[in-house]
Predict the 3D structure of the following.
Amino acid sequence: MESTKYLLSLFLILSFTIFLSAQQPGIINTYNRPSTSLNGYWKYIVDPYENGFYNYRLEAFENQKDPGKNAFFTNSKPDNPSELIEYNFDLSDSLQVPSDWNTQKEKLFYYEGSLWYKKSFDYELEEPSNRLFVHFGASNYKSDVYLNGKKLGRHIGGFTPFSYEITELLDARDNYLVVKVDNKRIKEGVPTLNTDWWNYGGITREVKLIETPSTFINDYFLYLNPQDPTRIQGYVQLKGKQLANQAIEVGIPALSVTLPLITNNEGRAKVDISAKQIRYWSPDDPFLHEVSITSGNDKIKDQIGFRTITTQGSKILLNGSPVFLKGISIHEEKPFKGGRGNSEEDARQLLSWATEMGCNFVRLAHYPHNEHMVRMADQMGLLVWEENPVYWTISWKNPDTYANAARQLEELITRDKNRASVIIWSMANETPASDARTEFLTNLSLLARDMDPSRLISAALEQGRYNNDPLIRTIDDPFASVVDILSFNQYIGWYDGLPDKLSQIKWRIEQDKPVLISEFGAGAKYGLHGDKLTRWTEEYQEFLYEETLKMLSSIPQLQGMSPWILVDFRSPRRVLPRIQDGWNRKGLISEEGKRKKAFYTLQKYYQSKD
Ligand code: GCU
């Protein structure tokens, strides 16, 4: 009898845990959904030994039937003066959310490990039948989330949204949301141990509560058929108890569209609208259509641009016309202040600098940036490359690593698939060619194409020597046959010789595909001047840009570029005193917003492309 009872409770705990950790890609379009912000100051405890997560036998408290008060997620306080509890969130210091911890506290600048956050809040549902979700814009890297002492789930990946339902666990008063964030780098991770950017830790993007009706609009995708720009296609997906035969209405006033739909048994309704008078989205006219989707008690609005992006031989066609991508690469760092970027102002500043340089395209490297960036690009008319953080040498043969990379890509596409500005999904950056790697990336690209038939696939590959001739370069990477746009990084004149080598280089690219140079560049300390072959001077960087732009124009398939990089950015790999001091200096703008000479070289080149 005893054993059956034990097995039953075990089954219940397990199923409850499984139910609770049914994490889902973040609720779509939280930008426009009414919500309650949990941003602001959160209490925190630094826990390098994970003392609040494991007992001294390294058994996780959350796996115990009774985790006990030493588990930090119980947010416990002593009941009497004799009780021993060796932590207290409410007596602890605070950190801002959203933000990384590294740039908030000097002592946390280099910290990589676990840190606990706690936020208390009161909340009463507007309608008793409604549901409530807690939504995170992103949290780097591994986040264990608890509400009122119960585990909601674990999210892995530092750059994509996730949410948990908390309806069943909610109290009207004194709810406590506890998040253990661990940004330790691991070999099997995505990214892996080694990167050239600062591993900012923490809850780096907004946290909000989202209340929905019991059945609500969980996902939708509206896009132009790439082969027929008069057809808007896609779907609307409901979530909840009432899924089958539900009425949905899609409204696009600018197109006098009011489309009634009925869901199938899975709560999904296909969209297929024929519209002749579409005002297409483009950098010259970034027109966004007001779109409304209504179903039952749920209604959401969005601003969606309609455009097609395709390739034809070595041309990239935007709305059927060739476009040259005048781009720049960007890291997600706060202009002037440093630290992880996360606000509308950050996005506006970064994208305004790109526009000032004459760009119509930005490469958001090497991971999904915050949603403000792509929403701003939609409004400003900038074309966008988004990338999954499969960077350098990932554990290609590890199925968990693949599942992790695939989920991060899925979360990215789920969030941004309705953004007209986003034209390219990049699968990876500078990954060493091998069968396991190519299979890994090919599977990711199949996932992306399955989720989104309307965009182009690429990856930042590496160039090689043609027939071993150091002066003739080519792309012989097997993944080049999978991508729509052939992109590669090249650092001739910086990691490979001096800028005067560039004029000797010939390119022999045999693929009949558009070529995009995803990176080239040179380091320069703002204000350091000298002759053009003296490293770290602005003249060296300027000379490299001049020579590179000349060399690249010899590539017949050249359709764009995104030089490395818009602004100097932090990297623990860059330690040269008085020059780098923890900054990668390949920016065209310094961390203080000062424009280097090469900024104007690229600006002039892009003006010549108009
Ligand atoms: C690499 C890499 C970047 C890096 C850059 C550099 O190509 O993709 O992440 O910062 O080169 O070395 O500066």
